Amino acid sequence: MKKSVNMSVATVISVALLMANNQTIYAAAPPASNDYYLSNQLHLSQIRAHQAWSVVNSNEQIIIAVLDSGADYKHPDLKDNLLPGVNLVNPGRSAQDDNGHGTEVTGVLAASGNNSIGVSGVLWNAKILPIKVLAKNGDTTVQTLAKGINTALDRGAKVIVMSLSSMSYSKELANAVQRAERSGAVLIAASGNESSRVAYPAAYPTVVAVGAVRSNNEVLYQSNTGPELNLVAPGFNVYTTKLGGKYGSFSGTSAAAPQVAGAAALILARHPKLSPFDVRQLLYQTATDLGEKGWDRKTGYGLLNVDKAVRTALSYDFLEPNNQTYSAKAFPIESQIRGNLGPKDTIDWLKMDIPYDGKVSFTATVTSGISSAMAATFYPENRPPIVQYFGNGDTITVPVKAGKMNIRLMRNGGVNNSFTYVLTSKFTINPDRNEPNDTQETARPLVGNQISVTGNFHDEGDQDWFSYYVREYGHLDVSVSPDNKRVDLMLSIGKQELGKKMVVWDPTYDNGTKDNPTERVQKEVSPGKYYIRVSEYNRNAVNGEYQLDLGYTPVKKDFNEPNDTYQKASPLSGGTVMSGTIPTASDSDWFQFTVNSESYVTFRAPYIPVDSGFRFALYSDRNMNYAIASTNEVAELSNRGSDIFGLRLQPGKYYVRLNSGTSFKYESYRLTVTQQKLIAGYRDISDHWARSEIVRLSARDIVNGFNDASFKPNQAVTRAEFATMLLKSMRATGSKVATTYTGKTTFRDMPKRHWAYHNLGVAYQLGILKGYPKNEMKPDQPISRAEMAVMIARARDVLMYNRGTSNYQDVPTSHWASPAIEALTSRKWLSGYGSSFKPNGRATRAEVVVVLSKAYQL
């Protein structure tokens, strides 16, 4: 993964501002300054900067440092507010921006206001110190960023804004942040744009972590969230300064952070003696609540409200009322909180979300001189309460389980006066269940072919070792995935040399990216002991977990080998199944089977391990030089569920050759061969009740089958098919039936190109077949059993008359086909289904053959 700090620039697909139901879209208020593009700066209305400007609009008493890619010193809207900068990327050179990001950030913060040109920053007039820490490509290191903070402090900066982020904790950066707090400088940083946990430096407790929202106050998808988030500000299409004296929009948490920095500077213009902690608390106290009531992980304390921030007096306990369990206020881990306890307010309730099993440390600053001024009762979920006592400077640690924890703070009984407390929390994850496994000797054995374990880096320098014993040649698939992007994983895999302790390691696998931080290895393995080592790139302790997944697949045994030539062809098991592997592209698998009588043989491929390039060829032992049938698309046919081949084979010995352009050895192909003995050339009548009639009429060419050697005896017969069969039966018994239709009657659905045009026409001309209204013949419509009876009766010139009784309960004497059905039944040419005839049922091919056989004595 990239180990650098990146600008927090969000990629925005659409720049359109959409109206949505029940959402407030902020429109620009009447101009509070005369800047030309002020109406484009909707974010200023959203954070109520216009209203704040009537109270305070500038701060030229303090230095505000912008740690970024520099600034455009020639930009007409910036040059009057810029101090000579510092270039830490190329020392000795100016801090002129060569990327553009710093110019955009600086414009949001302090483009000159009310100067009749361009845009306005949150600050109209200011002393901005650009410190170039980002190179031209937008990257830097945490060391350079830490140096930038220290350089800003050395130059006397009281507000430092950083629209950049790194997912990695850094001691050097943490020390610089702590120095800023001691030096009285307010730090503001973008939360980052990775759709993950709040990044550093924003994640440090004394830095204001700023997320981004759209114009309707919905959180920007990319904006990082979590327990460290403090505020949100507009971060979508924020109109600002651009390189070369231009203007335009940019998006992301980078655009949100400088708005908060501008508000901090305006607060200090009104209250120059406030500490950094006080400035942060006033920003949180005056934010417009969004989402869940009070603080939440997505929006922090809410949307920046500049107007309220510069007009409101600082509260030392803005979380009130919280003296009951139900009114407990959120205390995020890795953050700070302030409150008061006194004679009239003796209890404060707080609540904390615990992400993992671990422990939370609380460091207290208490204005009371009593050593144990405050009693704290902690209520971890599913654990007994824990009581601890706080005095000024005390740190206590509480074991916690993942889930909710309530905290009750109470003024100790011996304390008479009111006092203020500040608590700073720090969470540490417990060691994972695999510990201790920090060395080769303590490596945790993994057993099984599919394994999943969860681990973490609970301590600085922690690394996790696992061992896995491979018994056969095979394929190993190992992946490690973090649950948040602060965990920068590295994966190492090595094999222990036989009989030695030494491990031969692969090159370290470190290919994850910000968008896909998973590390994955797929490799061939041989019998022996393997070690897997998982570590964090910066060797940090990280509050997060990873999941290690291991899958082992042994080489599939091909029990048919050796069968690489036709002389070694494997006889098919039961004559039906072929299976095996193709471990090399040059490998071929041969099978043999015998056909004892003329048969229809069908080849199918239920499973092929590759997507293409699998080849099939069929040979007869009578000529091994040429394939009877072959195809290179076995895999494609398998995926479609289609047969590979179906063909008639004469008695003899046959061979199948299989090979593949793409080799595989961890899965087996599966092909089947099915033999169906042919009766009169048909494969589907061997045990059919109408078999003898089908054979007889087929021999006389009265009925025919299909190209796939089937007769389909149970398939419905169409009017065209029945007319054809009937006329053939008449001719076979000596009737002089025309072969060409010469009549003048035409039917719109029976064109001359129809395959049965003449047969249908002759049957119509003979009065055997009738048409339908609207000049329709409906040649392809299935014929009913009633129509079949009537047409045969007409063809045989059977006397038909209405009878007094019926042989079938579903054919009353009034039925239009009753005379024909009764006449044919009496001659035993036709029968029903017990007492039913099913006159509207479709006549099948088998039924037609039997009726024709009886009616014409065929």
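Above is the first protein from milestone M3; the second protein from the same milestone is given next.
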Amino acid sequence: MGQVVTPATNNNVQDTSLITQDTSKNHLRTSSGTDTVVMKDDSGLETVVTIVANDSSWNEVSKNIVHLYKGAKVKYQDFELSADYIRLDRNNNLLYASGVIDHNGKYVGRPVALFPNDTPKAVDSLTYNYKTQEGKTFGVMTEVDGGFIQARAVRKNMYDEMSIYHGLYSTCDLPEPHTHFGIHITKGLVLDKQIIAGPSYLVVQGIPIKFVAIPFGFFPKQDKKSSGFLFPSFGEDAARGFALRDLGWYLTFNDYWDTEFRGSFYSRGSWEASMRTNYMVNYKYSGGFNLRYASTKTGVEGADNYGTNKDFNVTWNHTQRQEANPGTSFSASVNFGTGSYFQNTGANSTYDYDQLTRNNMSSSISYGKVFGDGKVNFTSSLSHRQDMASGKVDLELPTFSLNVATFNPFDSKDRVGEQKWYQRITVGYSLQGRNTISTGDSTLFKKESLKRFTNGFQHSIPVSLSLNAFKYFQFNTSMNYTERWYLQSIRNGLENTVNGFETVRDTIQGFRRAYDYSFSSGLSTKIYGMYPKIGKVEAIRHVVTPSVNFNYRPDFSDPMYGFYKSYIDESGRLRDYSIFEGGIYGSPSRGQSAGIGFSVDNNIEAKVRTENDTTGKGFKKIPIIQGLTFSGNYNFAADSLKLSTISFSGRTSLFNQKINLNFNGSFDPYQLDERGQRYNRFAIEDGKLARLTNFGLSFDYSFNPDASKSRSDNIDSLRNNMPAMTQEQSDALARISTDPNAFVDFNIPWNLAGSFSFQYMRRFDAVERKEMGDYTATVNLHGDFNVTPKWKIQFNSGYDFKQKEVSLTRFSIYRDLHCWDMSFGWVPFGRYQSYNVTIRAKASILQDLKLTKRNSHYNY
């Protein structure tokens, strides 16, 4: 069949550039000359063997052998071969190909063969019978279902069966695996659906571990995802003990969905189990759900505080492609379970700060449809909100809305010229419906809770008109009519009991309607101001946008409407109440309102000359204050406390717009009495303009803004090549885009970012009988840096100034092993004190991007 040819021993073939060729023997006269050989196949039909040589060729006519040099190619039916040296023996239908040793002593021009129904392979040398389609390769690497087999010799027959001799199986695609993890197979046979191996043993760091060798083995081989064992990680948790985490089994059912089962076990008796399923139909929809259960031991065994916490968590997400069903949408984002799940499990042993500090969970399943030429939009949803601290659960089963786009009822399609004022009147319509319940998570599924659902419908018809007035003003007027439909109402009264008279509430079943309406008219304009030049500041521009509006709403507690009734309570006082009290859309408001609303918006920016501009005429705009807004309302119809609180908000940028600072708050113009209640006396009467009731300030900053930009550019570059990716690569890239913080970017040498949040509020202290200030202030710092191009250290910490303690602190060390990755995580102190060590194979897409998986709960 041929001789084994290696770079070190190939002395028969030399670099033809160093040999003076006899051109009389070269029948390929051009640099890209071709030749053909006509022969008959097994059926007697004539076939053609095409041969090409970019450098030269030599035809031994007496032996019927052709020698091809430099960029040589041979094609026969579905078989193609290229190399720097090819020998074609037409007597035996035999090809031999190898590389050549160049003038630098390097072995170059290795053969690249494309066998029928296979991918191209680069080898050291090969022999191939193109008639029987049997060949033998030397120094070959081939991919088998995501793994790579390197073998000293491989023989392949016409049935696509390969025999390997002294092979190494690993997950690395390099000639010398980075990690040196692999399985050495002495002899083996690679068939269509399985690999049959002879004596095999593990090789680690180039050291054979033969004492764990197996005499033979059968391994399934498929051209699709296959089920298999999921390797665990190891570590220790201060509260739960030594850990064996994420041990499991992966199941694949078809090309559309798969499932994995995982379990974690701790030496002190705690355990966790989970089932994760992903599904996807190309160009239609994709999603997945995760069911997790945890049994966590607490306290000291034998003590009174010893016990077991049982928690669960369920998540589901679903996304529908827009082009799959135009005009219709369906999506789901579900996250519910026990409120203590993340705290008791350390966020699935990831110690994710955001998960550990979250205080609520929410879910939403929504459906939408657009019809009527896009003018009518219908949406519906099922949702849930859960307060993890109090255990309160709010369910909406379901909520729906029907919205009709605003239209001009008095305008005409055949109108010529500008609209008249009445043709500018716009009308809209919306219908909403809700069915809700609010209860505790411990009583959610009990029968009595299901009887406490409240429901209702609300219709809203807004009418508006907008005109230009007095050249510089914008005039707006509107009227809004709202009607509510309820299937129940309430009645309050007194009942004589053994303990005396008590207030009772009866629910009256039956259809009732409630309605209200309001009017509003307003003016707004813009005022521009310029301040003179100050130093390098060429000009300062100030834009003020004041607006004022008049609003009116009748008193719907008037008996003529029938929405309010009265009764005498147990203390003998006459009390008014709304028969729609507690209704899903509320009740028409009591009390007449006739007031003026006002707001003032400010934007200030500076125009500064740039020093690096060569023309000397360059300027740049620097925002000083953006969106500084003050707003409030004055109610003429109220008998007291006519002026509302004054709220304000704004934002600005610092240090060349690298820090975005946001602030907000509110002022109360009235004083408080000895019980902490507002009363009708302005604070300015005591020498204070107003009382500051709350103030908030927050900002974040990254010292290396190139970190996020570089990472986004890498992902965008790969996404552009999405059509050329495998499904596994596409899925991995989608997961990176969904949660970019779950991966470590080795392309960025360092990153340091921080955030600060401050909240100040005034509360009335009933004991001290005075208003006292309180605050919360936290700072968080996170970052990472490369110790070497292959080692990275990441950290996350913070400080709570109110509690005077360090927040969750975590250090992580990552080692890039090309086709593998290793990580070590350490929480040095606190409730979640622990460490964790993980070593696992890396998806091929991450090898190209140099991103390492950070959290163990992200799997592929």
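Note on the second protein: The mean pLDDT is 78.
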